[in-house]
Amino acid sequence: MPVALLPPVTSSGGPWSGQHPLHEAPRYVRGPNNSRWHRPRNATTWPDRRTIYGLWCGTSATDGGKYGPLWFTDQPPPDEPVCGTCEGRALGAKQDTLPVGLPELRFDPRWLQPPTRCPGSRSRTLWTPIGRCGQCLACGEIVPVRVIGVGYSAWGSGPVNHEPGDNLVPPCPFHSWQRLTARNNTAACDCGYPAGDPE
To answer: Which stretches does DSSP call E strand in 67-169?
Structure first.
């Protein structure tokens, strides 16, 4: 059963390029690289035979052209999750009624999970020299140091890519490990938030 789509209203973009809005679509859409089914919010067909679907969670999916086909369904298989953000917004906007048998919903919030690649990797400043190696200020590991960049594009040296050690600095609650800088020979968030929990 198709659902009604909202108009693809936007305040950005250039002049009209031959695209047209779609008025309805199947209830769920999924691309080959998606981990879950999504709900389409709007869709636009283009002269090159692509259709771009705007999804309720804020992302988009392209059907046709060099992007390959999307999959559509009115009821996803029971073992495949549905984007919780898409489902909640689509139902809250009354785009559709609740499907029979609510599917498994999935949402991955931004918890402070340690990164798989240490934030001190390939940094010019987050390390101190120890012989021919360096100690990473972000995690405390002693790792090889290499030139960063190639030829005229080389811009310094730093620790090679490595997994975070056991002594990874605590994350900033506002920026996690994304804005680490060297301060007093330690790594800390450049926003100034104190390391660890304030007392």
So the answer is: 71-73, 82-83, 105-106, 127-130, 133-136, 142-148, 156-159
Tell me the domain boundaries of the chain: 3-106, 127-189
d(CA 199, CA 191): 18
pTM, to two decimals: 0.62
Inter-residue contact 34 to 53 (CB < 8 Å)? no
C-beta of residue 53 within 8 angstroms of C-beta of residue 46: no
Give the C-alpha separation, 110 to 120, whole Å: 21
Distance, CA of 49 to CA of 65 (rounded, Å): 7
Strand partners, 23: none
What are residue 88's phi and psi, to 5 degrees? Answer: -65, -45
For the cut 70, the answer to whether the pLDDT of residue 162 exceeds it is yes
